[in-house]
From TrEMBL:
BP term (GO), one: proteolysis involved in protein catabolic process
Any single Gene Ontology cellular-component annotation: cytoplasm
Pfam families: Proteasome
Domain of life: Eukaryota
Record text on subunit structure and interactions: The 26S proteasome consists of a 20S proteasome core and two 19S regulatory subunits. The 20S proteasome core is composed of 28 subunits that are arranged in four stacked rings, resulting in a barrel-shaped structure. The two end rings are each formed by seven alpha subunits, and the two central rings are each formed by seven beta subunits. The catalytic chamber with the active sites is on the inside of the barrel.
Record keywords: Cytoplasm, Proteasome
Localization (cell): Nucleus
UniProt entry tagged with the keyword Transmembrane helix: no
Protein's name in the database: Proteasome subunit beta type
Keyword Cytoplasm: yes
Length: 106
């Protein structure tokens, strides 16, 4: 009869052999930073943002605006996870185009 290999007879991976537990963490989201400020008065609005796109101590670019013109009277300022910002602004632009076309067909 052949011997059945035991799970415990195999060598442990190097990170487990040291005796201290290790925690591995993966997050698909990255906070790319960003600051946006807006001031509104009776007959004016001013909105401004920084232009630096970062992750941790790494600077990807110093020339990335975080302001998006949605219409002649609407500007979106957003900071945080850059991929989410781009997806959200593209979604808004598509929805606005659909509504504009529907209103023109009425």
């Amino acid at each position: 009869m052949a011997a059945v290999p035991s799970l415990f007879s195999q060598e442990m991976p190097a990170f487990m052999a040291q005796g201290t537990p290790k925690q591995f963490h993966f997050s698909p989201y990255s906070d790319n930073g960003g600051s946006i400020v807006a001031v509104a008065g009776n007959d004016f609005v001013v909105i401004a943002s920084d232009s630096r796109l970062t992750t941790g101590y790494s600077i990807y670019t110093r020339e990335q605006s975080k302001l998006f013109k949605l219409s002649d009277k609407c500007v979106l300022g957003s900071g945080g996870c850059w991929c989410d910002i781009l997806t959200f602004t593209r979604f808004l632009e598509a929805r606005m185009k659909v509504r504009l076309r529907r209103s023109q067909n009425l």
